[in-house]
Design brief:
About 35% of the residues lie in helices and about 15% in strands. It is an alpha+beta fold. It folds into two domains: about 160 residues, no CATH class; about 160 residues, Tetratricopeptide repeat domain (Serine Threonine Protein Phosphatase 5, Tetratricopeptide repeat, Alpha Horseshoe). Strands 2-9-10-11-12-8-7-6-5 form a nine-stranded antiparallel sheet. The chain has a three-stranded mixed sheet with strand order 3-1-4.
């Protein structure tokens, strides 16, 4: 039987006017989750998706004839990267608990300032390309076509007086595309007439919040290019984190390890990362609750069930009535021998979300010996909810087998 884890300086220029067309996904704690296999005893399924996780809309083509990550790739090890790029700055610059390696525009293949960000485990999790004087996208029709299909997630005015092709304030746009595990963002001006690229970022999805080109620290790089004499003259603008950077960085590290974004799942790293994220001091209770939830899941997989239960209860104390947390708490309670409490947690999860298939499956398995009629009903409801979903195929087969048995 297969079980699973369901798994976010002063300037002389005029003041900058900013407006939001729509809230950008990186403002949410977690953007989306994936279904991935996880074997646990008793067949109980851990639900790990955030209750308010935004859903990525259908993606347009992300093809490009401007190849920026030409000789490297996200998730590459730092040693391999340095072998390919011996001109990268040494020693590296500190990036929270990780490191940033840079290649100045005068030595880079893109002719822009290139920055590569590695986590403390030596894995490339994001990259930023900055073009302080702007890169004319006229010679890149494929990328221009892709950008034309994207709806800007953010629009704002930017003083572009020092761009080679512009002379005054221009409307700038932030656009996003990507694939199932990574996100690419572009900061451009002249989107509807003469498109100029200012910045582009690439990241695996757990780190997307930390790699928006509209982050203040990245916009500042347009004012102070590496080894240059300035491109933009802008007022200080851009988003800044309200939560401590170390907490956000470690949370992303935990997600990367727990959901196998760069190789196999590593629950030792996940536990370490979530514990450090909590210790760094989230101020928002939603962030803190989710960190404790994810820590509880990682501990549960590692067999540290009592500690997992404690973290899940603390998560619910901060943010009550989250179905995924209740489902995981029920799993921990049953593992600890408290079947009544476990059944109650599964039932609460279903009351809150009647179509929560994972909790119904768990409730069915846990009810078979004491309440076979309820187990039969829950198995049938589970199958009705997930019929046709490829990732649920193995569990559907098992559920149908148990239905036959329980009907005898």
């Amino acid at each position: 039987m297969k079980s699973g884890l369901f798994v976010s300086a002063s300037s002389e220029s005029a003041p900058i006017v900013v407006w939001f067309r729509s809230m950008h996904p990186f403002m949410s704690a977690i953007r989306y989750w994936f279904l991935a296999g996880l074997l646990v005893p008793m067949g109980l399924i851990l639900g790990c998706g955030g209750s308010d996780a935004p859903v990525r809309p259908p993606l347009p083509p992300s093809k490009s004839d401007l190849v920026l990550l030409a000789s490297t790739a996200l998730c590459e090890r730092k040693a391999d990267f340095l072998h390919k790029h011996p001109s990268a700055t040494q020693p590296p610059q500190t990036w929270g608990s990780g490191q940033e390696l840079t290649i100045a525009g005068g030595r880079s293949a893109s002719h822009g300032d290139e920055s590569y960000f590695f986590d403390e485990d030596g894995v490339l999790v994001g990259a930023l390309f900055t073009f302080p004087r702007g890169l004319d996208l006229g010679p890149y029709p494929i990328l221009r076509d892709t950008l034309s299909r994207l709806k800007p997630s953010l629009e704002f005015y930017l003083n572009v007086a020092q761009l080679e092709t512009k002379t005054n304030m221009e409307s700038s746009s932030l656009l996003e595309t990507g694939d199932e595990k990574s996100t690419t963002q572009y900061l451009v001006t002249g989107l509807r007439d003469h498109t100029i690229l200012l910045e582009a970022s690439f990241t695996i999805d757990p780190y997307v919040r930390l790699f928006s080109p509209y982050r203040r620290e990245f916009l500042d790089r347009l004012r102070h290019p590496t080894g240059g004499t300035g491109g933009q003259t802008m007022e200080s603008q851009g988003t800044e984190d309200k939560e401590p950077f170390p907490s956000l960085q470690q949370f992303a590290r935990g997600q990367t390890a727990q959901l196998a974004y760069c190789g196999e799942k590593n629950y030792d790293i996940a536990v370490d990362a979530y514990q450090r994220a909590i210790g760094s001091g989230f101020t928002n209770k939603v962030w803190l609750a989710e960190a404790r939830h994810k820590l509880g899941v990682a501990l549960l997989v590692k067999g540290q069930v009592e500690q997992a239960k404690s973290e899940l209860l603390q998560s619910l104390a901060l943010r009550p009535n989250v179905p995924e947390v209740l489902n995981n708490l029920g799993t921990a309670q049953i593992k600890l021998g408290d079947k009544a409490a476990g059944l109650s947690s599964f039932e609460r999860a279903i009351v809150l979300r009647p179509n929560y298939a994972l909790a119904r499956y768990n409730l069915a398995e846990a009810s078979e010996t004491t309440n076979p009629k309820r187990a039969l009903s829950e198995y049938e409801t589970y199958v009705a909810i997930v019929e046709g979903i490829p990732e649920e195929a193995d569990r559907i087969v098992h559920a149908k087998e148990r239905i036959k048995v329980l009907k005898r």
